[in-house]
Amino acid sequence: MYTPVAADVAKLRNTTGAGMMDCKKALTEAEGDFDKAIENLRKKGQKVAANRADRESTEGAVIAKVNNDKTRGVIIALNCETDFVAKNEDFVKLAHDLAELALGKTKEEFLASDYKGITVADKLTEQTGVIGEKIEVGSFETIEGPYLGAYIHAGNKIAAITSLSADVSGADEVAKSVSMQVAAMNPIALDETKVSEETINKELDIERELLTKEGKPANIIENILKGKMQRFYKDNTLVHQAFIKDGNISVADYVKSINDDLKVVGFVRVSLT
Fold first, then answer.
1. 248 contact partners, CB below 8 Å, separation of at least 6
2. Would you list the DSSP string of 71-128?
């Protein structure tokens, strides 16, 4: 019977990330054929993936990446089942590698992309077999703009990317600070014009019902609602929110203080919590 040498086992382990004993067994079954051993490991991963298809992968690492030109960005969530795996150094590195690969692609293009000789989709299946947990790409958000900046919160559970109207002096710090705002405060929209009609109507219905129960006269409820909605926009839309680093000014005021013509024009956010 073929007995793998240590160097081959180590090579297979470095190539696939599989455990030492799994690599030894795969090489033994493949009688030393390196490519066949990789295929054996992948088949094992596919079997494990099928067995765990109904499991919830609610943990993981959320990673944001921006290209060198600061014009394209992506946030992906590489999901797993446990926090123990999510904090693993190799898992986090894989999440960073995949996010880098995802730049400029749709999710479908990304999953079909080559990652060290196999597709990303196959790599996820392989890792399911190696780790023993369901591994998948969950959230996948892309953004384009004149100037982008990203922020990943400690622990890799939340990430955000902000788009500014121009590349000006100080734009990098502004984009990062506003992305921190997005991560922390989770705005529902950029400003009042971007809030969905459904959300507005729902909020109006709630406030109108509360005011009616308080006995407010019908002829003044509508005027009160205008003030209520202004407060709603202030609390829930990015540019009107109080800036987390200085509660005396809004996000829009902060951005304008750096450059009179600078504006926030978009953002994306992904969170596992």
1. 242
2. SEEEEEEEEES-HHHHT-HHHHHHHHHHHHHHTT--HHHHHTSEETTEEHHHHHHHHH
Chain position carrying tokens 């839309």: 237
Give dist(CA 228, CA 232) in Å, integer: 6
Alpha-carbon 214 to chain mean position: 42
Tens-digit pLDDT profile for residues 30-78:
999 988 888 888 888 877 777 777 777 889 999 999 999 999 999 999 9
Which tens digit of pLDDT belongs to each residue from 188-232?
999 999 999 999 999 999 999 999 999 999 889 989 999 999 999
124 touches 107 (CB < 8 A) = no
Helical residues (DSSP H) of the chain, grouped into ranges = 6-16, 20-29, 34-51, 83-86, 89-102, 107-111, 120-131, 171-185, 197-213, 218-236, 251-258
3-state class of 66 per DSSP?
strand
CB 37 within 8 A of CB 10: no
Tokens in use for 222? 């509508």
Backbone angles phi, psi at 52, to 5 degrees: -110, 15
Q: How far apart are CA 118 and CA 271, in angstroms?
A: 28
Contact 130, 16 (CB under 8 A): yes
Task: Name residues whose C-beta falls within 8 Å of residue 89's C-beta, 6 or more positions apart in sequence.
Answer: none
Q: What is the pTM of this model?
A: 0.85
Residue 143: CB atoms within 10 Å: 20
Which residue's structure tokens are 């829009």? 252
